[in-house]
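Per reviewer request, we include the raw input and output of the structure prediction for the construct analysed in the revised manuscript.
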Amino acid sequence: MHRFTVDFIETAPRPELLELWRELHSTPAPRSISVQVMRRILAFDVQARERGGLPKTFHAALKKEVARDDTKAPHKHKNGARFVREWNGRTHIVDLIEGRYHWNKNTYRSLSAIAREITGAHWSGPRFFGCAEARRQ
């Protein structure tokens, strides 16, 4: 592993970065990871290992932050909730019934799936339907 340095990482082609990733993480790199992101992660990993790993205080602070971070928790809307959005001159109404979202005579697991159907693009469902602000409070 001594041949893998930050200088190497900055110029190495993707196949060699994938080899380093497997060596450091004991798993293949995510298939969709860009070379730029892979370079940053690998440089961080190599530097941390050269310095004996990350400090215990860093791990403790990270665990504490993860424990208090609720931004990834799904928002719990009540059954019977109705979401309304106008898009391209058409009004879309979604009802939440027994934990499932009903729109256009179909049932979906998430608002994001419906937003994607409506727009043809990847959207945050709560943001698209205007309920993301309430989630942050």
